[in-house]
Each structure stands twice: as structure tokens, then as C-alpha cells.
Q: What sequence folds into this?
């Protein structure tokens, strides 16, 4: 019984506010396990990369040389591969957010009609999502993109467009785009399902009112569905952008960042520096930059979104 | 249902046909790689190189039997099951406890802490992979299940906390108040009332954590170097060494390792986005 919150209107004076701020003592027991794990596996490692980003260190020997900002200077001024990785992240963010989200929305709108086989279509489009990226990397790399035996080139040869039978993963100019296509293929089903769920939350009365006013189907989509799906658009844009900073597996499996580092993303670059070259101080500095990039991008997106919401634009 | 009827109203037959055509086009786009995988997994070595036709003429069902005898597939499976089940159980317990406190109890710095934990959702784990690997090594947990279980559970906390907190807040408070008057403690309420009422959200959380742990690659790649301790996402790399020119068996193996995720997904499909959208609705 003692655990019942005291009625705040009965208690008064200073003591009340102090007690209120401390709150329920048992709450701390509830959050403690979470906090311990979180500090140990996330907060401490973050501190660690900040610390080591100022050192020249191979990660193994006890010898650490303090070099202040040299790692950062080298990354920004002299590391061409880092610049490629940065550029690729930009391609990744723009292409996946735009294509994947709009394709997902398009499919969700089509499946919103009462048509036969709806669930079957939905399941097929979603099928690539749960399957491991590693598996997908091999499937695309060997069966689709292989220069001689791959079905993409087979298809182009069969329809007489031999010029389009390219070296999809071996050409430095297009390797990253080939990988981005696989990523879009894998995640469009997810965008679609998110949009379908978002549509469920739009009040039916709006459509009824619009229909009574004589709005066509396209007008209802244009002026009701698409604007009211704003939270979903926003979620998908944030997730897509973060994806550009989070992707490792698929690049590692398909090209290992090659040929000649042309398809490198920041995580693959970190892996390469830290675990192939053992430049762990240098790699830590890149990790710090990645962390700040992800943080700043998301903060900008969120503040833009909430500002827009307040003004009623979004 | 009304919504559906409303939208279908006045839609001529010809449009249905058009919609189906578009959908079939996308079906081909999405299904081709998967269908090809199944076809290739049934081919013999000669067939892969001699015929360009994707459909196997003499299906080699033996490919699916051979992989179990020739590779450590069973061991990979066992390792993945252990790591995944352990991390799902741990994170479910940790995060649901935390989510209950965030949803219902008052404590100092509640919102600041909540947003701090939530911001980790946006943290690419690759930023901290270097220290994580070193910590695992120093703790002597390389080639040990615990070396993966700890980090996997922790990475799951932010999303699960978010989903569960939102869900817990939708449960009417009156139920709890009644229990409190009967003398039930906070833990009792969490354990006997909140958790049993949150089954749909728990299902969402289980499926997300299952997929994340089952498919995690980088940390497993770094921490599990002994062949007998590797998890399934590493299996393709191992098979690549063994089967790198034997396509049929390689793809039979890839399909086999994908089946558990597909089963989990199909059996819990309806919960997949439910919990997420419960959160989105709130905004």
C-alpha cells in the first residue's frame, strides 16, 4: 500500500517537490539492468573511439602515440578512399530514400484497391526483407550480376541489347549502383508495408467527405492519403539516410568495397582500416566522423520535420 | 471494410486488369532472384555451365542432402539458435522492465534518459565495432556465445524500449489502480498485468529481435573465428571456400539457412508492423 503515489494535492511545501523529483524509488530498479548494458556496450565504446581517435595505434601493441588531430586532418585532406565512401553514402541516401519510398508508396496504393490476390502480392514483395543480406549478396552477385552466367546479362543479350550486358560488379563506375539496386530490391517491401500500415490510420470519414464533395480517386490520394502519410514518409527518409551510414554486410559480400575501393562505404572503410591494415587509431577517427555525421543528419531532419509540423506545412 | 467498398466504387473492370499487369511486372522483379536461387539449387554442376536455361532439367534433390553431410551446417544452426534465443530472452526482459518504468513510473531524468537511449537507434554499430571487438577479446569472450549475446541484447534495447513503452501507455491505467489497491507491487503489476496484456507488442518485438540477431554479420565475423562456433550468417563464407564452384550445393545451403527466418516471419506476419505503427499513431 505504501507504494501508492501520494496525492500531490495533499502534500505541500518544499518536501513535496523533492520527493516528486526523485520519484518512485523502485523505478530505478526497473531501469537499472537496461542502463548497465547500455553503458557497458554503447556509452563506453563511444568514449573509447573518441579517445583513440587522437592516437596512432595498431590496436595490439601497448605503444600508443598521441598525435592530436593528425588523423582527422589526414582523413579530410588526403584520404581519397574516404571521399569516395562519403560520395557513395550520399548516392546511397538519395537513391534509396527516393526510389524505395516512392516505389513502396506506389505498390501500397495499388494494393489498397480491392483486388484479388492482394495478400499473395504483398507476401511476394515483402519476401526479400526477412532473408539475410548475406544470402542476397550471393544470390545477386552470382545469379543476377555474373558477367557470363548471370541472368541480367542473359536477359539483355536475349533481347538484343548486348551493349547493356555490363560488368555489373567489376566496373568501378557502376559497382556501387549495382549494389544500391539490390538494396532497393530488398527493402521496397518494407516501405510498402509501412505505408499500408500508415494508411490504416487515416480516418475513413475524410474519404467519405471527399467522395461526397465529388473528389476523384486520384484527388483523394493526392490531397488526403499522401499528405496524411507524412509520419511514414518521414520515418522512411530517416531510416533510409541512416541506412547509408549503417550498411556493411552487402558491400562486404558483393565487392568487399572494390574494385579499387570504388564501392566503399564508411563502415567498410572502417573495417578495412581497423582489421586489415590495423590502423585502429585512424579507424577510430573515421568512426567518430561517422557518428557525428549520423547524429547531425538526423537532428537536422527531425528539427526540420517538427518545425514543419508546427507551422502546419507537413 | 467500408473504406474498401468506398474506394472500389466506380472502378471499371479494365482498371483491375491494368493494376494486375503492373503488379505482375513487380512480382517478376521481386521474385526472379528468389526463384532463380531455388532453380539453381537443384542443378548439377554440369547443368550450371552447359545450359543457359534457368530451369533445371534433372532436379538434383541430393544437393539438399549432401550439404548436411559435407558441411558444418548443423553446428552453424545450433550456434545461431543458442545466440538468438538467449539474446531475445534477455533483451525482452531488460527492455520490458525499462519500458514499464518509462511508461508508468516517475523518476529523476526520465525523459532525458529515454531520449538518450532512443538516440542509439540511429547509431551505426560500425562506429563502435573496434572497441567492442577489443572488449570482447579482453574479457576472454572471443569464440564464446556470451561475446555475441551481450552486444546483441544491448543493440536491441532502444527499438524494443520504444515499441513497448508506446504500447504500455495504451493500456488503461484503471486496471493497474485496481491492482494497487489490492496491494500489488509495481513488479507484480508489470509481471501479472502489463506483460500478459501486451502479447501483440511482445510478438512484434520478438520478431524484430529475432531477425536482427539471426542475421547479424559483422560482430560474428570478428568474434567467432573457430569453425565450430560460427553462426549462420557466416555459413555462406565458409561454404564459399568449400563450394565456390559448386553452385547447386552453394545455393541449396543458402536456401536452407534462410528457411527459419521465413518461418518465423510467416507465422508472426500480422504482428510485424503492428507495434511500430502503434508508436507512429501516437506522434
A:
Amino acid at each position: 500500500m505504501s507504494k501508492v503515489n501520494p496525492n500531490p494535492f495533499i502534500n505541500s511545501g518544499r518536501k513535496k517537490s523533492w520527493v516528486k523529483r526523485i520519484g518512485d524509488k523502485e523505478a530505478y530498479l526497473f531501469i537499472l539492468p537496461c542502463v548497465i548494458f547500455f553503458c557497458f556496450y554503447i556509452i563506453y565504446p563511444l568514449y573509447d573511439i573518441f579517445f583513440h581517435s587522437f592516437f596512432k595505434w595498431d590496436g595490439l601493441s601497448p605503444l600508443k602515440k598521441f598525435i592530436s588531430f593528425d588523423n582527422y586532418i589526414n582523413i579530410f585532406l588526403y584520404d581519397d578512399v574516404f571521399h569516395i565512401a562519403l560520395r557513395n553514402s550520399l548516392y546511397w541516401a538519395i537513391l534509396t530514400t527516393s526510389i524505395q519510398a516512392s516505389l513502396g508508396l506506389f505498390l501500397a496504393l495499388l494494393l489498397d484497391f480491392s483486388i484479388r490476390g492482394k495478400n499473395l502480392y504483398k507476401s511476394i514483395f515483402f519476401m526479400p526483407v526477412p532473408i539475410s543480406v548475406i544470402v542476397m549478396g550471393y544470390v545477386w552477385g552470382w545469379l543476377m550480376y555474373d558477367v557470363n552466367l548471370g541472368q541480367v546479362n542473359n536477359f539483355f543479350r536475349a533481347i538484343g541489347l548486348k551493349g547493356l550486358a555490363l560488368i555489373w560488379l567489376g566496373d568501378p563506375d557502376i559497382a556501387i549502383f549495382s549494389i544500391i539496386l539490390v538494396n532497393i530490391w530488398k527493402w521496397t517491401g518494407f516501405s510498402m508495408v509501412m505505408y499500408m500500415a500508415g494508411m490504416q490510420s487515416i480516418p475513413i470519414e475524410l474519404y467519405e467527405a471527399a467522395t461526397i464533395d465529388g473528389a476523384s480517386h486520384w484527388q483523394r490520394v493526392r490531397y488526403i492519403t499522401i499528405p496524411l502519410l507524412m509520419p511514414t514518409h518521414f520515418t522512411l527518409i530517416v531510416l533510409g539516410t541512416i541506412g547509408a551510414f549503417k550498411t556493411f554486410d552487402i558491400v562486404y559480400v558483393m565487392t568487399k568495397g572494390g574494385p579499387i575501393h570504388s564501392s566503399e562505404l564508411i563502415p567498410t572503410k572502417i573495417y578495412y582500416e581497423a582489421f586489415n591494415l590495423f590502423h585502429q587509431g585512424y579507424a577510430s577517427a573515421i568512426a567518430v566522423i561517422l557518428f557525428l555525421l549520423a547524429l547531425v543528419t538526423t537532428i537536422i531532419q527531425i528539427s526540420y520535420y517538427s518545425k514543419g509540423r508546427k507551422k502546419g506545412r507537413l | 471494410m467500408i473504406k474498401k467498398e468506398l474506394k472500389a466504387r466506380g472502378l471499371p473492370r479494365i482498371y483491375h486488369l491494368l493494376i494486375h499487369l503492373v503488379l505482375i511486372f513487380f512480382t517478376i522483379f521481386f521474385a526472379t532472384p528468389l526463384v532463380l536461387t531455388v532453380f539453381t539449387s537443384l542443378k548439377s554442376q554440369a547443368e550450371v555451365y552447359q545450359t543457359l536455361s534457368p530451369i533445371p532439367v534433372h532436379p538434383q534433390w541430393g544437393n539438399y542432402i549432401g550439404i548436411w553431410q559435407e558441411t558444418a551446417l548443423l553446428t552453424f544452426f545450433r550456434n545461431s539458435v543458442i545466440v538468438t534465443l538467449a539474446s531475445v530472452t534477455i533483451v525482452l526482459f531488460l527492455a520490458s522492465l525499462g519500458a514499464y518504468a518509462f511508461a508508468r513510473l516517475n523518476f529523476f531524468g526520465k525523459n532525458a534518459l529515454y531520449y538518450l537511449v532512443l538516440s542509439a537507434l540511429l547509431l551505426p554499430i560500425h562506429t563502435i565495432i573496434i572497441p567492442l571487438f577489443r572488449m570482447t577479446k579482453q574479457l576472454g569472450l572471443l569464440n564464446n556465445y556470451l561475446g555475441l549475446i551481450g552486444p546483441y541484447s544491448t543493440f536491441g534495447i532502444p527499438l524494443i524500449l520504444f515499441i513497448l513503452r508506446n504500447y504500455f501507455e495504451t493500456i488503461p491505467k484503471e486496471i493497474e489502480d485496481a491492482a494497487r489497491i489490492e496491494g500489488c507491487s509495481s513488479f507484480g503489476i508489470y509481471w501479472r498485468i502489463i506483460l500478459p496484456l501486451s502479447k501483440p507488442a511482445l510478438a512484434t518485438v520478438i520478431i524484430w529481435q529475432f531477425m536482427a540477431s539471426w542475421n547479424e554479420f559483422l560482430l560474428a565475423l570478428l568474434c567467432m573465428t573457430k569453425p565450430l562456433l560460427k553462426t549462420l550468417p557466416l555459413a555462406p563464407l565458409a561454404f564459399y571456400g568449400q563450394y565456390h564452384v559448386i553452385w547447386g550445393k552453394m545455393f541449396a545451403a543458402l536456401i536452407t539457412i534462410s528457411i527459419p527466418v521465413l518461418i518465423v516471419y510467416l507465422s508472426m506476419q500480422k504482428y510485424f508492423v503492428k507495434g511500430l505503427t502503434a508508436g507512429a499513431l501516437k506522434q
